[in-house]
Task: structure prediction
Amino acid sequence: EVQLVESGGGLVQPGGSLRLSCAASGFTFSAWDMSWFRQAPGKQREVVATISHDGGRTIYESSVKGRVTIFRDNARSLLYLQMNSLKPEDTAVYYCNVRGTEFDYWGQGTQVTVSS
Result:
């Protein structure tokens, strides 16, 4: 059974940092590209960042570029999202995701709230 379990969210002041983690199991983690998505209240879920299976390529949504880093530890089946210089508009539930042509798995999400 595929499981994705996010952690690391919380309340942080503007300008602060958080590192999100996603523990993956039930599939060959190192074989698949992985993504972080987020969904703010009243808005559609959007992709934040994607990393290739080997970590060699990363893609970022324009509003987070330069502030966020996606990386992975294939030996431990862990996906990370390091977020710096956080803004109130980064407030959302953050999800990790793995998808292929015949599957699409999500974690339960972790809440990130940026507020003073």
Observations:
- The first strand starts at residue 3 and ends at 7.
- Residues 97 and 113 are 20 Å apart (CA to CA).
